[in-house]
Specification:
With about 280 residues, this protein is α/β, with parallel strands linked by helices. It is built from five helices and 18 strands. About 20% of the residues lie in helices and about 35% in strands. The strands form three sheets. Strands 1, 2, 3, 4, 5, 6, 7 and 8 form an eight-stranded mixed β-sheet that branches. It has a five-stranded mixed β-sheet with strand order 13-9-15-14-18, sandwiched between helices. Strands 10, 11, 12, 16 and 17 form a five-stranded mixed β-sheet that branches. The chain is elongated and about 65 Å long.
Length: about 280
């Protein structure tokens, strides 16, 4: 895969420098050029400021168009960059999409990974497996599947793969019944989450569902693992749980308090350290 792009991750006064379209500053690497030099030039062109970059890239994004390298940078001033606070950035479409989790999770501190983080950009790749998930809330509690995984339990939003010929709406109601025994009425789609995993796109559609009836006995449910079971968890506890999708869980708690999104949020998530409390 050819190297086509080089850019910077620049924090200034605790805020992230982006271009007007919320893209990390960057530009093409000329044939035979050095990526670090191209990153400095891209920042000069895009932001109108001089930056210093670390010798090695901190982040590598492998997209269908080529490899994009990003260097952590410092600058005396941010030129004409748009500067985002963390509170603003968590609700904006940062680009590259697959790197937004890493950027938000680290913010102004040291990266939580060692060396160079390599992620695949699922955007533009054929989906390998699409999923539909049901967000069911009753009396301030959300229905989750609880799995025992090593030293601690992990949780997942009920749902599963979309079968050939199914719509996401059909799939989420089928999966809800198979995994919980409930029937449901879809209220709205609240998020589209692609799983950040090597090898392709794994999109998921998550719906707010009004469920009817009571959960079925464990023996009648298709939960996929003998140790799995259904639990109702207080919505306020979601940000601190080891739950998939991680970045969606804390947003559900936020939306439950402040109102559901009018259009689905678009996220790229990963299984990196699900136990870490999340607000990114």
């Amino acid at each position: 895969m050819s190297l086509t792009h080089s850019g910077v991750i620049l924090f200034h006064d605790g805020r992230l420098a982006v271009q007007d379209d919320y893209t990390l500053p960057g530009g093409p690497v000329p044939p035979g050029g050095a990526p670090a030099t191209a990153a400095v030039e891209a920042a000069r062109t895009a932001l109108g400021c001089e930056v210093k970059v670390e010798p090695e890239p901190n982040l590598e994004v492998r997209a269908v168009t080529g490899t994009h390298l990003y260097f952590r940078a410092t600058a005396e001033d941010a030129g004409r960059a748009r500067l985002l606070t963390r509170e603003e950035a968590v609700h904006l479409p940062l680009t590259p999409w697959s790197a937004s989790e890493a950027t938000l999770r680290s913010w102004t501190g040291e990266p939580w990974w060692r060396g160079r983080l390599v992620v695949d950009e699922p955007y533009g790749r054929p989906p390998k497996r699409s999923r539909a998930g049901a967000v069911v809330i009753r009396d301030g509690r959300m229905l989750l599947i609880k799995y025992w995984d090593g030293p601690e339990d992990v949780y997942e939003v009920p749902g599963g793969g979309i079968e050939p010929g199914e719509t996401p709406q059909d799939a989420v109601l089928r999966e809800l019944t198979e995994e919980t025994g409930l029937t449901g009425t879809i209220l709205r789609e609240i998020a589209q989450v692609d799983r950040n995993i090597r090898g392709g796109s794994h999109p998921g559609h998550y719906f707010l569902v009004e469920a009817h009836g009571e959960t079925g006995p464990r023996s009648s449910l298709d939960l996929g693992a003998e140790e799995a079971g259904l639990v109702w968890v207080p919505v306020a506890e979601l940000p601190g749980l080891p739950i998939w999708p991680k970045r969606l869980a804390w947003r559900i708690a936020h939306w439950y308090r402040h109102g559901w999104p009018q259009t689905p949020a678009v996220l790229c998530d990963s299984l990196w350290d699900l136990s870490l409390p999340c607000d990114w």
